[in-house]
Amino acid sequence: MVMVSLAGICIFLQLYNNPFRWIANSNSLSCSKDRRRQDCMLCGHVRKCLHHLHKQSHRLHRHPEMSEEILHRLKFLLPSGMIFKEQRQRLHNLSKYIHRGHLPNPSSNHLKLHHEINLRLQQLNNVASEQENRISNLHRIAENYTVAQHYTKLHHCVKAAMKLHHHNRKLLKNIHRTEKYLSGIYRDQSRIKINIATIW
Questions:
Q1: Against a cut of 0.85, is the pTM above it?
Q2: Alpha-carbon distance 20 to 183, whole Å?
Q3: Residue 46 in contact with residue 79, Cβ under 8 Å?
């Protein structure tokens, strides 16, 4: 049971942090639904692990020797750095394909669409940056409480980590909605270009 949990967490952290190159072709778009389902499944798995860690941290006064392990697992389950890097890179790459694939002599509607896409991605990046700062600050605070042996406050840090992960899940949902939105634009754009090529 523990081994399965650790394996699931490791897979999640790969999704959380690892960059990759994503090409927006028909095969990539068709499997995006499976990727989103996997993201949500692993995100839910980490939520359960944090809930279990919160219960364990409640016993720190009776078992202070667990404090280092609690801190380590908190940082492991809620890693700092660029969150959802892989998923955000997909959006960036898909946006580039949409911008490059616009029709000749784009209308004002096309320009408005490009502006809307850029604005939406910028908003997502701003939210992610704020969340990354909150996670880094929580790690620093939890480290200080562990050294000072403030076990009640360390317990509260685990609860704060659960809240931050909840915000991560909301961010992931927004990323998924944006991916579906951009994928729809990309498909429509491809169909229009195919129709024009057929006419000519």
A1: no
A2: 18
A3: no
CB-based contact 100:189 (threshold 8 Å): no
The reported pLDDT for the residue numbered 98 is 83
Helix (H) or strand (E) holding 135: helix 108-148
Over the chain (200 residues), what is each successive 10-residue block's mean pLDDT? 47 44 38 81 94 95 95 95 89 86 60 88 95 97 97 97 96 94 83 45
pLDDT of residue 153: 97
> Measured between alpha carbons, how far is 169 from 112 in angstroms, rounded to an integer?
29
**Euclidean distance between CA atoms 178 and 123, whole angstroms:** 11
Element (H, E) at 7: helix 2-17
C-beta separation of 86 from 15 below 8 A: yes
Nearest to 127 by CA among 184, 176, 168, 177: 168
